[in-house]
Design a protein that fits this description.
By secondary structure, this protein is of the alpha+beta class. It has 6 helices and 10 strands. It has a single domain, classed as YbaK/aminoacyl-tRNA synthetase-associated domain (YbaK protein, Alpha-Beta Complex), CATH 3.90.960.10. The chain has a 5-stranded mixed sheet with strand order 5-2-3-6-9. A hairpin with a 5-residue loop joins β7 and β8. α2 crosses α6.
């Protein structure tokens, strides 16, 4: 279930949203397959460690991967890396795969990839493996005072693997 803290945050800030229930999923790819959504309409949220000392939240469409060189330019730093599972548990008090797109709730900066704006509404993780939030991308950007930048790249080699994984998941769901 989505926490009351998250729902109160959205209500307090008058952000229109829809709670979308689904079978348990652990990745943005699985969410897209389960709900039969295009991957550009599903967002993935990641925790990034910058310069070895601070953390930020980044959000990009599920069909993209992080282009670390682009992100280094955006952040004006040489050192960035994905946060470890332990860091996610420690700093966000959540499990990997259940990250919220609301950096403000954790006092973290939020960055949105500009490709998210190619769709009006997107599905976002909600801190739950069985529920997601559908909301306007521009509303999330405004709510989080997010930095919008170009840091995504098409995952060429892994795209084939991801597509195969999605097809396999869909077959299982149809049984």
């Amino acid at each position: 279930m989505i926490s009351k803290n998250v729902l109160n945050y959205l209500k307090k800030n008058k952000v229109k949203h829809e709670i979308v229930k689904q079978k348990p999923v652990f990745t943005a790819y699985d969410l897209a397959a389960t709900l039969k959504e295009k991957m550009n309409k599903v967002a993935k949220t990641l925790l990034i460690k910058v310069g070895g000392k601070r953390y930020i939240i980044i959000i990009l469409p599920a069909h993209l991967k992080i282009d670390f060189k682009k992100m280094q330019k955006v952040l004006k730093t040489q050192k960035i890396e994905l946060a470890t599972e332990q860091a996610i548990k420690k700093f966000l008090n959540t499990k990997p795969g259940a990250l919220l797109p609301f950096g403000t709730l954790h006092k973290l900066e939020t960055f949105l990839d500009k490709a998210l704006f190619k769709t009006e509404h997107a599905l976002f993780g909600a801190g739950s493996f069985t529920e997601s939030l559908r909301l306007k991308v521009k509303d999330l950007a405004k709510l989080e005072n997010a930095t919008v930048a170009d840091f995504g790249a098409v995952a060429k080699k892994s795209a084939k693997k991801a597509t195969a994984k999605i097809k396999k998941t869909v077959k299982k769901l149809r049984r």
